[in-house]
Amino acid sequence: MKNNKKFQKPSSLKKLSVKNENNQVSLITRIFGSKKELENARENFFRKYSFETNINPLRIITFLLFLSVILCIFIFLVERNNENKYREWVYDGIESIPPLDTLNFESVIEFSKNENFLTCNSKDPEKLLEGICDQSLIYINEMNSTQSNSQIIFIIQFLILFLLFFPLGTFFHRAIRNIKTLKYQTNISAEKSIIWIYFGIFLYFLFTFISRWLTSNDTIIFIIIFLPSSFLSFRIYKVLKEIYLGSSILEISNKSLISIFSNKLKIWFLVFFSCCMFNPSTITRLWGYNAQNLSEFIDVTRFMYVSSLLLGILCVVTLLLVVEIYKMQEIKKIKKGSIEIDPLNDD
Prior knowledge:
13 helices
């Protein structure tokens, strides 16, 4: 007797591709979305739209930027305190950088030897209990404490900036769509523009984090970081250019583009690119890894708190810039009105 189930769909696949008796959504549907959801997404993409206010994204951006500025102040104070502590060590005669890994006792003994703490010359537990390395461990523990505080605040700062990408993406996506409703002719796509910017951000972080693995040459590392920074700045410039031209109530020609850009926008680009090239990640890779003694490490620490000031300035200027764009679009809508855009007939 032939097996009629030979060419039927396996039962395991049926469980993944259809709803079960409890009407639960299948795994494949959860991953790729149902046909109805895909159709709804397509309809929304081609649905007519009109001017949308950016007030809600602006509120979220303001809140996150405010938190970021506060953290920049904390980083500045912590790094300044670290610098003062390290300078006290220099006055005490310490020249080498205390190791961060206390579990690697070879580095502890080497540090002790360099600083003439000659009693710390053994890994024998009994001798360690007698306190032969206590003097060395004071500096090592303080180094661990200062660096841990800096790293914790930096991680929190990074998470806030990561969260900031989403409301900023929403703000600029909506701002690009709005310029068409404000009767400005442009071929720029809101979706493609934001994707290009996110891609630039991805390249920047990728190249920055792998730069030290690829080479130890500082010049090449600088170029590796410079290239994605330039690409990202260029993509943002293209978006801001169209938003600014489309949001202005004045008729502006491309020839006078630079001259009509607000000082906020010019300062923002300068500070933004500076932050791309000078931040804790790039400082660590360009200067931190090369620090050979405590004096050079103090210079790295000074760079850290200067970069925190630069980031704080960027946050403030970013807020001023998005507020300016928001006001420009709202004013143009009130004075010149807006129209409804049909993506299917949008030339």
